[in-house]
Amino acid sequence: MNNAGQFRDHFRELIEAYALGSLDAEERAAVGAHLATGCEECTRALEDARLLVSQLAYLAPEAAPLDMLRGRLLQTVRAEAAAAKAYTSAISKSAIPLWMWGAVAAVLFFALYNAYEAHSLRETIRKTQEALTAQMELQQESARRLAWAQREALILTDPRSMKIAMSAGTKGMPELQATWHHSMGIVVSGQKLPMPSGNRTLQLWLIPKAPGAKPMPSMTLRPDADGTFDLLVANPPDSPSGTKSLAITEEPAGGSPQPTSTPIWVGAVAGK
Ligand SMILES: [Zn+2]
Q: What residue ranges do the domains of the chain occupy?
């Protein structure tokens, strides 16, 4: 925010001492000059510290922080002071009145409390954002499902859609029904399908009319626990006019670029 750059943190650490009037003349002048540059962080810190100091002015020396806090706070103050040797050398211990130590402890407590408050506020914001994100994802998911169901319903009900019966080569296998809409895609559905073993899956193929052309891979889907199969292919790799038949094979999870087993179901696409 200002050209003090790397020194900003250093000044920020001196603000409480500045407000307490416990800096030496040189440091005091330096902090004053820094504040004159308009550093927002230090200015705000100074306001907070001055407010606290003005309240501390009413405190009697014995009105130090609560007994349960005092020991720990003074311990922290001493640790801080030991760590910042330059700071302690600037303020000789004997020159500090007893009430000042209480003030320093209070300032420190104030800073710790603020840090704690800021943390719990951040935590609250984070949790709220998480809940909102989850809610939005849920709404997007249901909107997506609804759009999907609407698309499927349109494909199934549009009289222009082509109905393709897909019969199974194996006896006892239920027949599947494919419905192909020229612009909305293909729906393949069936009931009471056996579950492919392991995590193998069923994959749809478009067999092109062009002689010698390879089957075009499409989507994969496992039947649900009830054996219901309901596959919607919104963007088939080819049009009905270029396709001779639809086929479904069993493939490893994720599908294959070309069939690795003989089709279980096949249905001829009526020429148009
Ligand atoms: Zn600053």
A: 5-120, 162-268
